[in-house]
Amino acid sequence: MRIKKGTLNPLNVLGIRYLERAPKYFFKISVNLNCDDRTVKRWIYNNLNGRFNVSKDLIVVDNNHMIETSKIGFEDQREATLFMLKCPYLEDRRK
Question: How large is the average pLDDT for residues 22-46?
Answer without folding.
Answer: 91
